[in-house]
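Long-time lurker. I teach an intro course on protein structure, and each term I like to show students one example going from raw sequence to a predicted 3D structure in token notation. This year I'd like something fresh instead of my usual example. Would anyone be willing to generate the tokens for the chain below so I can use it in lecture? Attribution to the forum is fine with me.
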Amino acid sequence: MNPYAKGILIVLASAMGAGAAVAATTHEVWTISLAVIANISTTTIALIMQSPLPRKEWTDDQRKAVQPTEVK
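-- Reply from a regular --
Happy to contribute to a lecture. Here you go:
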């Protein structure tokens, strides 16, 4: 799946969940809207913060050094 489409779906699903949770306790449109807006912003920031940074490839020696050894 396209990572941008996946991110948009995550943000929308999270916002719907926040809206439903707040709507269960209050029916004020402004309160629900603020909860959804706050959730969209925090979810977007969380997705941006965890996006992968370019990393250097491991050499075979480095990979062997961190792999656990087999116990017989």
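Some talking points for your students: The radius of gyration is 21 Å. The mean pLDDT is 84.
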